[in-house]
Structure formats: structure tokens, C-alpha cells
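Most newcomers find our protein records easier to grasp once they have seen one. To make this concrete, we reproduce a full record directly below:

…
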Amino acid sequence: MRSRRLLLNKIVLILSTLSAVLGLVFLSWILITLFIKGISSLDFSIFTNDLVDGGLKNLIFGQFFMALIATIIGVPLGMMAGIYLREYGNSTYANIIRDLSDIMMSAPSIVIGAFVFAVFVAPFGSINGWAGSIALAIMLIPIVVSTTDNMLSLVPKELREAGIALGGGKHQVILDIILKAAKVGLTTGILLAFARIIGETAPLLFTSGTNSFWTTDLSNAFPSLTVSIYNLANFPTDKARDLAWGASFILTVIVLIINLIGRFLTRDKG
């Protein structure tokens, strides 16, 4: 019996190792291909010209701007919901909200895009940047809710009790003690949520579309790096496809940097 368990353990270990190696091979293949094709497509004019002139300046700005608006909308709502779930919600109702938030985290982004299209695009007759930002905010909120809920659960209850013993009200204890104790974890979660939404394409196809020109008017089609990558990759010219490779490389580097910052903050906490 013991030899059988050892044999089974070795088989599972070998299969797990092979799966990990296979995953790393495909990941390395993707990154190496992206690096080679992306680097060869980059030049300084990409960062100084708009898409209409063969650059990506307006697209990079537009992607960051919509993600920033989504963050401004989603972070306060997500944090307040997370605070409620952890500090006030000890009921079946709170558990239902927590479960719905978890379900929303796994909802297909294209479904969220279709919903926002029906509510914020179709009634107004045209795609617009506000709709794109709202779609990204809907994706960001459950991530922030979950992060806030989890980070606050790690704060020792003794800190709460000490704050109350000193005469602080519930809201004072939350604002002055609990949130400060969890600020590194919360900041990391927000950064990772931002990295998650800044690379989204599907919801923006239905909502913001993209724009070849520089604009800050969110009431019309708004520049989007991810949507433009999708469009450029389907163009028949080599120049357009090269630009798509360059844009993909830039987007990957942006997401990687944000994730590394988040990981660094987590390590610093430990």
C-alpha cells in the first residue's frame, strides 16, 4: 500500500511538473515572439504621433484616461462595499452580496460590454468614451470589493477593540486605524485591478470603440489602444500589422510594470 502511494505521488509530481513546464514554454514563446516583433516595430515617432499619422500617442493616452476614469468611479464604490461586508455585514444579505461580487469577477468581459452597450450606448445612438469607462469600472468594482474585504479581514480584531476602548466611534476606528493598517494591501489590490482593466478589449469594442485622432471628449468615440490593436491586426498592410505588434509590446510592458509594482508593495509589507 505504501509503495502504491509513493508511485501515485511520483506520477502526480511528474504530471504537475510537465504541466508547469508546458505552460512556461507557451508563455515564453508568446513573450519572445512579442518582444522580437514588437521591438522591431518601435521607433520614436510612435510616441509622438497620433494613429492617423502612424503613431500611438493618442491611443496610449486614451487607454490610460478611460482606465483612470474607471478607477475614480470604481475604487470608492468597491472600497465602501468591501468595508460594509467586513465591518458591518454579518448577515445572510452580506453573504449574498459577497457571492454576487465573486460571480461578477468571473463574468465574461464581453457580456459586460454588451450590457453597457444596451444601457449607455444604444439609447444615445453612438459609442462614447463614458460608456467605455463605465464598462471598465463595472469590471474593476468586484475586484476592489474582494480585495478590500480580504485585506480588512487580516487586520487583528485587537486593533478594533483598542480603538473602541479609546472612545472612537465605529467610523473613526475604520478610517483611522483599520484602513491605515491595511493600506499596503489595499493599494496593491487597486494597482492589480487597474492592470486588469487597462488591457481589456472586448467591452470597449461595444462601448468606446476607438479614434484615430487626439481627443479628450468622452461623449464621442474615444482612442483605445486595445481596440486599435484588434483593428490594426486585421488590416491587410504590413505597416498596420507592425504597428499592432508595437502597440501590443507597449501594452504588455505597461501591464508588467504595474504588476511588478504591486508585487513589490506586497513584498515590502512582509
Remarks:
- The chain is about 75% helix and 0% strand.
- The CA atoms of residues 128 and 221 lie 5 Å apart.
- The chain has one domain: 58-269.
